[in-house]
Amino acid sequence: EIQDKEKESNVLVKMALAYKMNGQFAQSLDYYLYNLQLSEEMNSDRKVCSALRFLAKLYEENGSLEMAGTYLRRALEVSGKIEDVRVLASNLTGLGVINMKQEKFRKSLSHLHQALGIQEKTASSDQRVTANILQKIGSCYLNLDQLDSATFFLDKAHTICENFRAETTHIETLLTLAQVSEREGNLEQAISHAEEGLNIASVAGVKNLHSQTAETLYRLYKKKDNSPKALAYLELHKSLQDSLFNKENTRALAQMEARHKFAQEKQQLSFEQEQKLNEEKNAQKAMWIALIVAILVILAFAWYYYQKQKANRILVDLNTEVNEQKRKLEEMDNLKSR
Q: How far is 188 from 275, CA to CA, in rounded Å?
């Protein structure tokens, strides 16, 4: 039964993801909520925590940050029951990101520093995850205008990214370092960081960040009154934006194919659920029939026993009456003989 529920849960998550990719928030939410209910029935803390994270991510991507935070806090409570501390660190990081988006930077730092502490104490921790947390912490300090602290954590993230394949975090770190340098008035250093990020994004093919770094370089060169380079990066930014738009169109076609595939899985799941429901109904019907037959048998035995007892009482009464009459006849005979 547990295996059946796990299979059903996996299908529900896939269907929810397909609806989310298609922008159908309500349908995706229904399947994620059903997955949460199923995970709770399975009594698996890890599955429940994962289901709550899916819901939090869905709300976050749709801009409902309060609801995202609510589900992440629930996930955080459940993750305390799981032995894997990496799950706890992941939930703390998630809450930190939500707080960042809500511009609650000090609250965000509290969660992120807790997550960083767990990561640094865990020998098997993924250094790329550590770098991501460091980048988020640096970004919070930048928003609080604590530039020295921002630089400290961003430099640590940069060092890790240079030693491990973490292109996205590396580019985000360099973009944040460029912002720090720009705020300090060091445009040369800001350009250096942004250009390094641009090169990594170009090689890695991370087009959204490639576009973002190009836009940053356009702004920085414009500040330096270097119009030719500013124009070149503006054109690159627009070209990448057009490419991203075409990619979105291609993705939309892939989503249509995915919807068809998951509709088939949904139909199969519905058939299996209906079959299982019919089996349960038949089992209940058989149980009721067996119970009724048992009651009838008990009633038949009770009736038989009652009738037998009644017949025995009648026979006893008759025997008593016969014996009484016999006794009276004997008394009369005795009187006559005298």
A: 69
